[in-house]
Amino acid sequence: MELFEKLREEQVRVFKQPFRNKFLNFSDGSYRWGTPTATSPRQLSWSEAFHIPMTDISRFAGLAQKLAAILADKLGHNSTFFQQSCLPTSCYLRLNRYPPCLIPSDIYGLMPHTDSDFLTILNQDQVGGLQLVKDGKWVAVKPNPEALIINIGDFFQAWSNGFYNSVEHCVVTHPTKERFSAAYFLCPSYETVTESCSQPSVYSKFSFREYRQKVQEDVQRYGYKEWLLWNEGANFPIDEVLRWIHIVLVCVQDDPAVSSAILLLGSDSA
Ligand SMILES: O=C(O)CCC(=O)C(=O)O
Ligand SMILES: [Fe+2]
């Protein structure tokens, strides 16, 4: 936790610089503010963020790798997949700052999304605002200074063949307080192709590069990503299903009692 305190001090120092410095001094793509693609206030993220590539083998990387290995172990897999595919250059740290927002009920600090990576280690300050979907409802994740938050990302969902689900989350704004968070993303390299740990896989194969590109297109077109959903069922055993439908129809035809019951269920008077 000492590490996070130091990180937070640096984070505040970096964000406190004038906008011009941040805009000019940080390389293309590493500084983000607002949402250029937004067409309504609901699609706006009231926040700014820095991406810092993790070129050193960091303590974050060690922790993230350990967590991924524990989760894989739970599925009965002693996987080296994460070590091989998550290179230090493909993982990064995102520093987020959420300024106070006077019209908080309409504006998100960060729009609802799932993370695309394997898993994310998140450290939030004490202001609160992070929410996630549980049993179809948005619930607040109460800040706890002693705890880190671990999010499953889309690629872990695909690797675990849907056993673990990437969780939808968002940040709501605060009317008077500024909020900070830091998120470490355990990402595969762009060449990594999803590889389900069990068969048959419910996802078709796609590389992390393809996935990122598709997500960007989706967000521009629809305002959210839908490709993982679309991919689910790409390997749906349609031949098998058709064979079963055929068998059921044959059975129904052979049994007059079942046929008349189906007719009855299908009629308006039933
Ligand atoms: O600030 C937070 O609590 C969440 C950040 C987040 O979800 C992200 O950076 O992807
Ligand atoms: Fe996130």
TrEMBL record:
<dbReference type="InterPro" id="IPR027443">
    <property type="entry name" value="IPNS-like_sf"/>
</dbReference>
<dbReference type="InterPro" id="IPR050231">
    <property type="entry name" value="Iron_ascorbate_oxido_reductase"/>
</dbReference>
<keyword id="KW-0408">Iron</keyword>
<keyword id="KW-0479">Metal-binding</keyword>
<dbReference type="InterPro" id="IPR005123">
    <property type="entry name" value="Oxoglu/Fe-dep_dioxygenase_dom"/>
</dbReference>
<keyword id="KW-0560">Oxidoreductase</keyword>
<comment type="similarity">
    <text>Belongs to the iron/ascorbate-dependent oxidoreductase family.</text>
</comment>
<feature type="domain" description="Fe2OG dioxygenase">
    <location>
        <begin position="89"/>
        <end position="188"/>
    </location>
</feature>
<protein>
    <recommendedName>
        <fullName>Fe2OG dioxygenase domain-containing protein</fullName>
    </recommendedName>
</protein>
<dbReference type="Pfam" id="PF03171">
    <property type="entry name" value="2OG-FeII_Oxy"/>
</dbReference>
<dbReference type="InterPro" id="IPR044861">
    <property type="entry name" value="IPNS-like_FE2OG_OXY"/>
</dbReference>
